[in-house]
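re: ur question from yesterday

yeah so i grabbed the chain u mentioned. its 372 aa long if i counted rite. heres the sequnce exactly as i have it in my notes:
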Amino acid sequence: MAQTFYEAVAVAVDRALVPSTLLFVQPSKPYVCLGCHQQMEKELDTEYCRGHGLPIIRRSQGGGATYLNSEQLFYQIVASDSSEVIPKKVEALFEKVLAAPIQTYQRLGVEATFKPLNDVMAGGRKISGNGAGKLGSTTILVGNIIMDLDYDSMAAVLRVPDEKFRDKMAKSMREWVTSLKRELGHVPPIDEIKKILRDSFEETLGVALNPSQPTEAEVEIWENETKPKHLSQEWLLMPELRHTALAEERAVKVADGVKVIEVAHKAKKLVRITAETIGDRILSVMITGDFFIVPEDAVPKLEAALRGAMLNRSELEAIVRKFVLENKVQMAGLDPEELVTAIMKLSEHTEKYPPDIHPYAEPDTGKPGNRS
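ran it thru and got these structure tokens back, copy pasting raw so excuse formatting
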């Protein structure tokens, strides 16, 4: 409920049942949160999560997998598109809205600053993680005030090559992620944090916030629509079920000229490209990673637009740019050029054919337009 109730609020805002809303939430128990565009088995040690009773919940926004517990206070903004306060562009949205948690940390005694795209920093370390997305006619931003951190659990839930690597990851997290307890030596009372955070949102956004409990309509939407969706295997395994064959094989030669290939590219965010290719043409493709794309359902549509494309930079750039323009897509942390660079890495593993014997070409049957 802590992870998903804001979606029910977004549906209610979209249906004009409630006004734009700011939620404050604390999870009652630990769990693991998976980014909207990530593959579960690629990112998480699912055996560890099951063995330690940690539910895995896929959120509707992009970003990376993380361990969450009651030592974090979530702020979740759900704003109608009619709002004149909340920016529509993702980059501007993060910069404006994160002014409130930054001011909160500063008033608590932590010298926090904004780091594009979506981080709040303290002393060079990350002290707040944030994500954004769309649902119907609403804009959503979710983030956290980190009171304390369990570094070992944060590292334990992630899939790594071996335990030595996991130890290095835990050490890296201690170096690059921090909390109120680490910065101040103590955790201020939660009611004080909430009050300062609420006041900061009112001041930085220039709005008046009216206290409220969840409405009957919001609870009903959560029980009947939001909760069943997030508990379903169809949602939890969304990328894998969308491309079952691609999710099961990696860099495998399937038939003459046909391969299943996976490559990764690190821009501001990580993107993984898994594709079935024949020669240097894409037959099908799966795009996953910790990036942000608005709207979120643009990813499967983009995958469909890339089917049949040649691994040619100019052709791919034309397809991606046309798709972004026609579908009003915003990519944050992954611009079209970087996405094409990631896709082009497939060409390092494909088999090349002369144009006249390309296996995807029209066969010479003597009957124009036929294809076997």
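noticed a couple things. Residues 287 and 359 are 25 Å apart (CA to CA). also Residues 361-372 have pLDDT under 50 and may be disordered.
anyway ttyl
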